Amino acid sequence: MSNTVIEFNNVGKQYILGTIGTGTLSQDLNRWWANIRGKEDPYLKIGETNDRTQKGDSRFVWALRNINFKVEQGDVVGIVGKNGAGKSTLLKILSRVTSPTTGDIKIKGRIASLLEVGTGFHPEMTGRENIFMNGSIMGMTKAEIRSKFDEIVDFAGVAKYVDTPVKRYSSGMMVRLGFAIAAHLEPEILVVDEVLAVGDAEFQKKAIGKMQDVSRGQGRTVLFVSHNMAAVKSLCKTGIVLQNGMTVFSGNIDDTLKFYLNETPETNEGKIIDAIKHKKTTIEFKRILINNTEKRNSTITSDQKVLSLHIEGHTQEEIKTDVMLVLKSKDGTPLATLAEGHYKGLIQTIPAGDFVIQKDIYLPEFLSNGQLYCDLKMHHPMVEWQLQAPNCCILDCEGHQEGYGSAINQHQFGFMGLNCKNS
Amino acid sequence: MAKEWDIIITNRNKLLSIDLQEVWHYRDLLAMYVKRDIITFYKQTILGPLWFIIQPLFTTIMFMFVFGGIAGISTDGIPQAVFYLAGLVCWNYFQDCLSKCSDTFNANQAIFGKVYFPRLVVPLSIVISNLIKMAIQFILFLVVYIYYFASGVYFHINATILLVPILIIMLGCLGLGFGMIISSMTTKYRDLRFLITFGVQLWMYATPVIYPLSVMKETYPKYIWVLVANPLTAILETFKYAFTGVGEFNWFYLSYSIVFTIIILLFGIIIFNRVQRNFMDVI
């Protein structure tokens, strides 16, 4: 028998666009009049899907619509989606900050939410007073907090500052303290919204480890919202993809992330071949595949060893060529390049007619988490360019991660991790 | 397996679904809030809680000069200090409760927007923490009262003094009730916030704080209904009567005030409860 702890039934949330001005009084009266006559709320019928890029006709918009899912006890659910997909609204409703317009949510057990750290911290009060204050806001009794007090201070690493007003704390210390309190609450359900982004790497790891303990060791349920795919992947078992306020996918975490990453062609759509900016007129390119796909977005999974490059085409005359693939960071800094012509002096000769170039590039063992932008080039050094396709595709690297580790971030630690011999 | 849900979140709830049990569960939070209000009041001050006393003391002295001295308004034979202080202690408590409660949603939107707890805890904590402030001011009143008593002024103390705790509770409940109603309405229509600042000022003059009811009856018998309709009139008059035996004590007026208080309080809780579920979307 399954043990459902959270159940969403047809949950929807409607918002009014624009400002709330004097017009609301007449709307209120309208609503009230409809209610008196026993009719449906006139404003609930209108509404359209929440696509913020399209200008809509209606002043009312569904931030969430028809959300239906169940969460079992001990599940760690990752909720992913683009900005504005409704993730935070969902968590707000779940933590009872605002109520749904339609539907209902049933919850078993105590729920603690960490929508923003330092919630309810009073700047004038000391760390100690705030631990008690914050703990009781989250529904703990004084005795419970007292028994956990040392653990909280220890976890947050603020022992020195515990009798200093929190207005003197650094933002990192606030986050640590806030998270420490929530993590030691022992709620049956913990709701976490993109809060860990603020702490340093060490603390992030500690926090993720703590959340793993909470779910694995103590069988509690965690709902986790993040844009950090590596964190979601390492922490969650199941996932939900939200898009324009609707659940478009739910399932185990690997499938969820695969679905989500393929669904977010944020900048590049179409095929790699469409990104060619310059080519020699006597050459025709038929297919270009990077990472086994013609699409301009793909994922390098955590355990992937090889990045494949496949070019099919036709040349009217013999060419000498060196195929180059430059991997860059998002801001355009080159990180690594395949250029055998340079360092090996290896120039390939392709006779006239159809050709196929297939290269399997060895990826570094400890690739970091982040996006790699690719420039694809073919040239005969000092003679001619045969192909130039800058930014032809984006590779989402999950980053290498094994055991209890978590992948390093590209923006923090660079492109790859180093190996060493321990003795 | 029978499912027992602990929490059900829906759009609809009954008119009177006030979960007092939940408020009781959060009593530690209530205590923390009271503590916070008091601690933060005198953080980084030198005089600390003394400020609770300084304010009514100096206001009383000002009243003695302006209303007692210059305007020459009668105090029904009671020493001016005792008369004004009695009125001020009561009025201050009501006013603090009212103005602070009426700002509940506005002042706490940061917390309310992030975490759930019974919102009723906040206005309740305001009433309680102000009660402590009130108690300190009440002691000041007693000191002044005993000083005059010892120096030979005769006060006709009577059994009505037993009503004083009830009067104080009524003041708190009235402030709470009105405050919650105003707070709930200001989330959407902010006009009331401007009204409250000067409305409270006007209200004080429509309450026998600086003059006794008897003076009003002599001077403006036509408008006496304004004072009678004001639920605070009976409370303040009874309070003064209890300690000095001067003033008007009337069971009918007092009963009216009690009924009025109960209705306002219930109405306040209901409207507050309705608004708190969605106020984040409109504030």
Concise summary:
The complex is a heterodimer of chains A (423) and B (283). Chain A has 423 residues and is α+β, with helices and mostly antiparallel strands.
What attributes does this structure have?
heterodimer; A: 423 residues; alpha+beta; Coagulation Factor XIII, Chain A, domain 1; 2 domains; six-stranded mixed β-sheet; 21 strands; B: 283 residues; mainly alpha; 14 helices; globular
Outline the structure in words.
The complex is a heterodimer of chains A (423) and B (283). Chain A has helices spanning 23-36, 87-94, 127-137, 142-156, 171-183, 201-217, 229-235, 253-263, 340-343, 410-413, and strands at residues 4-16, 60-72, 76-81, 102-107, 111-114, 189-193, 221-225, 238-243, 246-252, 278-279, 283-290, 297-300, 306-315, 319-328, 334-339, 348-350, 353-362, 366-367, 370-380, 384-397, 416-417. By secondary structure, chain A is of the alpha+beta class. Chain A has two domains: 4-9 and 66-263, 3-Layer(aba) Sandwich (Rossmann fold), CATH 3.40.50.300; 272-417, Coagulation Factor XIII, Chain A, domain 1, CATH 2.70.50. In chain A, the strands form five sheets. In chain A, strands 10, 12, 14, 15, 16, 19 and 20 form a seven-stranded mixed beta sheet that branches. Chain A has a six-stranded mixed beta sheet with strand order 5-6-7-3-8-9, sandwiched between helices. In chain A, strand 14 and strand 15 form a beta hairpin. In chain A, helix 3 crosses helix 4 (142-156). The radius of gyration of chain A is 27 Å and the shape is globular. The two termini of chain A are 50 Å apart. Chain B is 69% helix and 1% strand. Chain B is mainly alpha-helical and 283 residues long. Chain B has one domain (27-282). Chain B has 14 helices and one strand, in the order E-H-H-H-H-H-H-H-H-H-H-H-H-H-H. The interface between A and B is large, with 46 and 37 residues.
